Amino acid sequence: MTTQATSPTEVTPVEMITVVIDGFEVTVPKGTLIIRAAEKLGIQIPRFCDHPLLDPVGACRQCLVDVEINGRAFPKPQASCTIPVEPNMIVKTQLTSTVADKAQKGVMELLLGNHPLDCPVCDKGGECPLQNQAMSNGNAESRLTGYKRTFEKPINISSQVLLDRERCVLCARCTRFSNQIASDPFITLNHRGALQQVGIYENDPFNSYFSGNTVQICPVGALTGASYRFRARPFDLVSTPSGCEHCASGCDMRTDVRRGKTLRRLAGDDAAVNEEWNCDKGRWAFKYITSTDRLTQPMVRNAEGILVEASWPEALAAAAAGLKGKRAAVLTGGRVTTEDAYGYAKFARIALKTNDIDFRARVSGAEEGDFLAAKVAGNFNVHYSDIDSADQILLVAFEPEEESPIVFLRINKNFKKRGLKVTSVATKGSIAMDKLNAEFIKVVPGAEAAAVAGLSLTAKSVILVGERASESAGLISAAVALAEKSGAKLAWIPRRAGERGALEAGAFPTLLPGGRPVADSAARVDIAAAWGVDSLPAIPGRTTHQIIEALGNDELDAVVVGGVDAYDLLHSSKVLNSLKKSFVVSLEIASSSVTQVADVVLPVAAVTEKSGSFLNWEGRARSFDAAVAESQNRSDVRILSALADAMGESIMLGTVSATAREIAQLGKWDGARAPFTPVAPGTAPAASGDQAVLTSWRRLLDMGTMQRGEDNLAGTRRQTVAVISEKRAAAAGVATGDQVRISNAYGSITLPVLVEDIHDDAVWIPRNSFGSQALTALDAVHGELVTVVKA
Amino acid sequence: MTTVNSQLNSDVMNSIVARYPRKRSAIMPLLHYVQSIFGYITNEGIETISQVLEIETAEVSAVATFYTQYKFKPTGEYHIGVCTNTLCAIMGGDQILESLKEHLGLENDGVTDDGKVSIEHIECNAACDYAPVVMANWEFYDNQTVASAKALVDGARAGNPPAPTRGPNRLVTFKEASAVLAGLDDGLAHEGVQAGEPTLLGLKLAKEGK
Amino acid sequence: MSLLTPVLSAHWDEKDSFTIDAYKRNGGYQAAAKALAMDPDAVIQLVKDSGLRGRGGAGFPTGMKWGFIPQGDNKDHYLVVNADESEPGTCKDMPLLMANPHVLVEGVIIAAYAIRAKHAFIYIRGEVTHVARRLNQAIADAYKAGYLGKNVFGTGNDIDLVLHIGAGAYICGEETALLDSLEGFRGQPRLRPPFPAIAGLYARPTVVNNVESISAVPAIVANGAEWYQSMGTEKSKGATLYSLSGHVNNPGQFEAPLGITLRQILELAGGIRNGHKLKFWTPGGSSTPLFTDEHLDVPLDYEGVSAAGSMLGTKALQIFDETTCVVRAVLRWTEFYKHESCGKCTPCREGTWWLVQILRDLEEGKGSEADLQKLLDLCDNIMGRSFCALGDGATSPITSSIKYFRDEYIAHVTSGGCPFDASKSTLFAEAK
After folding, report:
1. Cα dihedral sign for A360, A364, A370, A376?
2. Which chain C residues contact residue A67 at CB under 8 A?
3. Which of C18, C126, C269 sits opposite B194 (nearest CB)?
4. Does the distance separating the beta carbons of C361 and A61 come in below 8 Å?
5. With contact defined as beta carbons under 8 Å apart, do C332 and C360 qualify?
6. What is the pLDDT of residues A713-755, one digit of tens each?
């Protein structure tokens, strides 16, 4: 079921070049820089400004080597980070050339001359390229005894990033990253000469979603993150490779723990996915794991209706009693690991004997359900590398920078390197669209499908469909039709990290694990045999919304809920009422709207406390071990297995690794896929006068529960605004900065206006930001009429 | 966001932008233009240029702080630069600078309380054959002495500075000169000499057959 | 026969020499009309044949530079004139532009036509208000006369010329830094390759030439390559502006064939100021290693100066007599390089920071003899290790002065301070 990304199918032959470095021959692809050819031989040429993912700049001059081509030597040492290898090139590094060695030591002396040498109090100490290379390639003593350059220290260039300018070696990695990779040139080199310094414009902080990468690639301790500064020494940390639980981009990560406490997370290095980058949410949103509202002990609602702490056996017995023989369903949310989702899927079928299970704790619909079953599950055909080879990207109800930031970085890379054409069918323009110089096909919320239907694409295009496509009738169908008509590839990019894994694991009403259709008897036999049960329920299950309905009208008695927040759903009060009247078993990491109404609460492990894996939007698995080895918390699947045992309906998933093995053994489904029934294009409701059609999406940094407690991170979030067009602003008598009230029968919300590129008939608000929660304020997110007036 | 009631004229700014095949090239004349309005680079100026050129404010300030002619605090109406690069310094520039600082009671980069005169030491201004050289609002004052330089600043403070040696018939203000540096015509190109004596020395000798 | 050959400077003594009327009165814009009637390649060949070499310092053959521009590539080409004249001692382009801006405008028209550029820029330093006025007026008048703009000289060619005014940065005289500055970035040098001829302004094929180089072109077109070839030495053809400044009786501009000596120029200029004698001088600005009175007879052409251990540079002859403390002079130049270092690379940015401190200590008598070795070794770690030539240039005054005046440095150490009386070096010292 899981997949590894296949390498691009088209293999173009690469010209290889052989060079001699320090007397050793090495053969590398044409275009390889000397410094990297040397690495292949295990020869480390010292460097600071060089970074394999940034354009060469040759600024620090630390990597000087002697170079000779066709017997002709360069008169002076050359920067090995800027010169590609050539045939008949002979390179002498510091190891074999006294000139190169002296040049490097000379540069190192100059870099250290103005450096404060405050290593004992510097966060970088112990993992510092300057410290390390000063030891390996520097002189033991300095001859520079005058006065050093000093600056006020540190300065906050955002609420999250601090800058100690006197430590900076001016390699410009941070400024180049921000400009070349993130297209956020909010930090720049300022002034010049010896006073040159990294900085921001004083009124505009470094509020980039990707700012943390600059901290990570800073080769000295000049840039530090507020949340890690002065917290630890690197040699006291235990590092564990991990995956990111925040979105479906699928970043490789590293989690650093000291004495059971997660102190920082870093971007890992996966060339096929995140390269060496991640977003600030992935890097800096992890305090939720140690927040005070974490659940540590099971709880059972007593006779007085109060939740009280209980032992595990008591709680499991209570849960089993409440579920056994009842008409029960499962809601899993989109945040659990693939193994946990599989546990829920198996638990539903065996212990509850139902297909009533859905991972979609968000606005969703039947069209999407069909689409996921027919076109997404079991399909692993679209990868990041397809963005690299695409001649056009079409974004459909998908705002990559907000909803899958590494997808944005990959598109941006291709835009910057080769001018990749990007088109977006969206209800509102965006910063990312500006950065990508994207063609913006502006639509009224609800009318997206017709716009997509009118497009034509080449076969080398890639269509990226966001999860919000389910909010506009016929949109998914139009995207599918466009892909079929053009031959373009189509990928679905959900927002949450666990959605794709849950789909593949069968936490879905119409699918068993591996994309096997419930309706297909052969598929049921397949899985029943693997699970050692006589049969599986044959009736396709209810969706999230149907389960809530059924709980409400007593068609269902009980529900097992894992990682769902009622406030992520439409009609949340109805959801909570339905839960209140049902028997609810809640598996959660922290107190939530659901635990408060549950009958049994079972605490589970947060992502850094457990092993497991996520499938990203490509369907690529990223497995990880528990970073906090000391944690007593258990993964959902282990608790579900114990609960099933307590019900006398064993699912035999005692460990995460056993679960992963079982998933792997199930293999692929090669039978027929569920059919896809297209839905006709929807239309936007007619807006007149003060009326507008609402649209919204979540911003990367918002009120998400997994960002709780991260004040430094929250300080870099984008402004909460209501976006309307110039024409509407004029009609409403408002300008950017003025307040407007947006209201419907349910409620209202008042926000400052931003006049931007949006359809005259539409209004956009952030879906879940500080001061703007569409679901709780308006019980609406997209395509509904609201009234917009000057406040 | 856009500041209302700005003294920055968008027509002028657009005309500067229109000189170039690509907008961003206009950043330097626009910064000169900002100085022609405010006498230095204000935040309003940086933010307005950022909007006009559609680049980040950080990118504007990165450029502005690179070049020494852009000032980040108010300059005097008459900005005096004394060349103290080697040749002028040795020929008397050091003495001129010291005496002016003392005379005005200013440190380097200081401005008089009346806002009339600011002073800085400058690098070689391409008039070495007229050393020692003093610049006022980037107009040439050639072959200066301590006395002539004092007369220049005293005249400037009194509102009637002597005319440049090689320049218009009157010394324009810093803001007016900044407008010229923004590429705006002040109609004074025809004023003043075509050349000073050292410029013509070789020609004169050649004509004398030497 | 005179040693001097006024070509560029021939009409500077006419009061209205900077006007279009005066320029036309003296035959101006006829060369452009002539060139535009030729095949562009023939114009390039003519300039190649003339032997004209870059007058901005490096001496690269101008016609060859033009010939590097790929033709028929369907890309915009650009011509950029480097008028950033900021090298200490250099003072030829500004007086030229003040006295006769039209000769540059005409040169631009010819050069742009030859390299098939429809757009040309003059990047002038910002600290010269009146020169900017004159140049802008000249450009405006040339537009009015139909020499610039659409269909110039009625030939169907379009040539636009924009004056871009800098804002104080010596580094922008480095051609790639100039291009970044002109594009609206910080003026820091670019990595090469690609060279400007392939990817210059806006990443398009671009020629960057010095003011004097382009200004020489109209006369070459008017009088022919042979005429130009007839001046100068074997490999350094033509005439050029020598700028004499400092402790001489009569400083000024001397336009002479390449290969003239300082002795000859000093003779014309009435010699070192009375009662004094030559101590050291720069042949081509502060970045060219110092010469002394040993070098009075070095032919001032590209090869001659190079053979004697320096560079012709911008032919900025800064003359210092025996009243001048060489340590003070060198410290001041070093402070200049520190001030003007763009900050991009470590050796120049950090090196100049420390060189200034060591030199200042030495000048104030707080140094030691070991500091000389330290200076030389730091210079060795900067020279050829920096990103661009600014770092190299910063070391020239130091290494050459220690070579010729080591004893004077030592004297500062042994006497605990500067043995010179600075007031004696001033222009107004004699008057006192």
Report:
1. negative
2. none
3. C18
4. no
5. no
6. 999 999 999 999 999 999 999 999 999 999 999 999 999 999 9
